[in-house]
Amino acid sequence: MKGDEMMALQEMPPTEEYAFQLSGSKFFSGERVNIAYQAAMKRPEPRYFKYRFGLHFEDTELVETTEEHAELTIWQFPVSNGVYVLGADPAYGSSEWADEFSVNVLRCYSDCVEQVAEIGTPDWNEAQFAWVIAHLAGSYKGGMLCLEMQGPGGAVFNELQNLKRMAGHMRQGDPRLGLYDVVGGMRDYLWKKQDALMGSYAYQWQTNAKEKIRMMSTFRNYFERDMVLLRSLACIQQLRNIHRDGDQIGGEGRAKDDRVISAAIAVIAWNDWIMEEMRAENRTYVLENRPVEEPHQQTTVEKAVLKYLNQQDIKFNAPR
């Protein structure tokens, strides 16, 4: 293979995990994609879920299912101190053949983001997609939503606004109030021109040609610096579909890229708003995930020694 390690692993994989080797990627580094794939293969086993819809938001149910029938995959359930961002791309939002409704939920730190949940399915409508977003926002409390407004995204946003208005008109004691109130705690991504010193803001995200270059380039920069920790094999496999042709970045031909787009939308929201907030509080990945230290329990011998030292008026700091 003339010293090309990646080509050698592709043609002569020592194990089945190495049989997936990316070649010919025009936008993402093949080496970095392969490293991410190998890391994701060692991820904790996720839980799989499927939604059941009724006529109204309050009729929505979430049931556990198998990987084959899953619409929602969860690697990490919400934690009380977690900060989250939801990147949402409705079907046909980013292109005319991107037919999956996709959401990526990332847990945020000052130095990286970690994928904790993902949705991908072509089987919903815009109202149902909005209900799922509301459900996830209620589960991952206080999360920031960054929604693709191109194509049917406007209809999704309109349904989310309807849910907020309905919550505002409910009286105390209404059994539905707690369910609807989850939407009120959701933060909306606010867009403004990157080069504007002052100016008005707009709700959510629109992937025009200029902003798509910024979004995808930002995502690639963080991903290749190991600052985007992906857990979804399906999402990582879609990375190999992404190519750049002039100012056009996306799935080559009619290749799927829905999950990559929703992940990139989530990363841009973290980059624009949440990263600096967490840097100010020094909330790094290592500090947030360090094990809880148990208080030291003194043994009988330690207690006897400390008592003797105190009787001799010898100052000694007991271990904590």
Can you tell me about this structure?
The strands form 3 sheets. Strands 1, 2, 3, 4, 5, 6, 7, 8 and 11 form a 9-stranded mixed sheet that branches. A two-stranded antiparallel ribbon has the order 9-10. It has a two-stranded antiparallel ribbon with strand order 12-13. It has helices at residues 5-11, 30-41, 126-139, 153-169, 177-181, 209-224, 233-239, 258-280, 285-288, 300-311; strands at residues 47-52, 61-64, 72-74, 84-89, 101-108, 113-121, 144-147, 187-188, 190-191, 202-203, 228-229, 242-245, 248-251. By secondary structure, the chain is an alpha+beta fold. The termini are far apart.
Summary tags:
13 strands, nine-stranded mixed sheet, Nucleotidyltransferase, domain 5, globular, 320 residues, 18% strand
A few lines on this structure:
The protein is α+β, with helices and mostly antiparallel strands and 320 residues long.
Say what the CATH topology is.
Answer: Nucleotidyltransferase, domain 5
Quantity of strands, as a count? 13
Give me the strand/helix succession.
HHEEEEEEHEHHEEEHEHEEHHH
- Biggest sheet, open or closed, and with what strands and sense? 9 strands, mixed
Helix content: 25-40%
Instruction: Report the CATH C-level class.
Output: Alpha Beta
User: How would you sum up the global shape?
Assistant: globular
Beta-strand residue percentage? 15-25%
**What is the rounded Rg?**
24 Å
How would you state the average pLDDT, rounded?
Answer: 85
Q: What's the number of structural domains?
A: 1
Q: What separation lies between the terminal Cα atoms?
A: 57 Å
Structural class: alpha+beta
Regions with pLDDT < 50 over 5+ consecutive residues? none
Q: Number of helix segments?
A: 10
CATH architectural category: 2-Layer Sandwich
